[in-house]
Amino acid sequence: MKIVCLDTLTLGDVDLSIFNRFGEFITYEKTDASQTIQRLKGADVVITNKVLITKEVIDACDLKLICVSATGTNNIDMEYAKQKQIPVKNVAGYSTNSVAQQTFASILYVLNEVRYYDDYVKDGRWVKSDIFTHLDKSIFELAGKNFGIIGLGEIGRNVAKVASAFGANVSYYSTSGKNSNQEYTKLSLEELLKTCDIVSIHAPLNENTKGLIGEKELELMKDGAIIANFGRGGIVDESALAKVIDSKNIKACIDVLVHEPIESENKLLEVKNKSNLIITPHVAWASFEARKKLISLMVKNIEDFLDGK
């Protein structure tokens, strides 16, 4: 078999040599749309994360299997692949622990004013202090806080479990309307936004969630509340969020954006109250352990394909 991986930079420093067991394995750090067809000439299997596999690509190549090194398959023309009887195999569930951990790393970074206190020590101010501590910025506990989760899927449930362990009061809003978890309190979106101190988003981007949180919704939130988006860009209106961070003292932890990498004109980069905003570059999924698991599950996908599963 000939396997081609089109965008290894999106996988980081994990070892990909295991794919050599299947035959010829060729890698490219990144691939422009204009290069895709040429690079897939003669390939039986493509591994892609963000490189589009369109109808044009499918027609120009002789692919037997499309492997997506992610959960989402929106970069593949799924309907045409099905029509051409080319299996598309994605990977689900590999990053649950990683996303949950990054969610709390970011939320606690904000609650505990880590940036401010780290700077206070490193820029020499603590050296000049007359007392052993410094309390100019209040820090807050998760215990007793109302912690709302939008999207109670596998990742959302993991976040709920950790929030409960901290002593938070967990509630959720089901974006599909079908989730009826008995362990946590189910609320309407409006009630969740009005009552929660922390709102953490772990939903997919679909017709139910696109533009779900706009200026009207953000204005419902408590002054000083935290909104975290670890679901998908497009769920939260970024311009509205930038406005509310400065006007209402809303705090935000953002890992996903509509356009990635972030565009220079994104209003979030113009926020004045910078200490109330944490932006990470879509990294929550990518712990080393999660990426290793991703590779092993892709290997299994290829094995299953070869076994006719």
TrEMBL record:
Tell me the keywords, alphabetical order. NAD, Oxidoreductase
Do you know which InterPro entries this protein is assigned to? D-iso_2-hydroxyacid_DH_PdxB (IPR050418), D-isomer_2_OHA_DH_cat_dom (IPR006139), D-isomer_DH_CS (IPR029753), D-isomer_DH_NAD-bd (IPR006140), NAD(P)-bd_dom_sf (IPR036291)
**Molecular function terms, GO-annotated:** NAD binding; oxidoreductase activity, acting on the CH-OH group of donors, NAD or NADP as acceptor
User: Mind telling me which CDD domains this protein's record contains?
Assistant: 2-Hacid_dh_4
Q: Which Gene3D superfamilies match?
A: NAD(P)-binding Rossmann-like Domain
Pfam families recorded: 2-Hacid_dh, 2-Hacid_dh_C
Query: What's the family?
Result: Belongs to the D-isomer specific 2-hydroxyacid dehydrogenase family.
Q: Please give the name of this protein.
A: 2-hydroxyacid dehydrogenase
| Species of provenance | Campylobacter pinnipediorum subsp. caledonicus
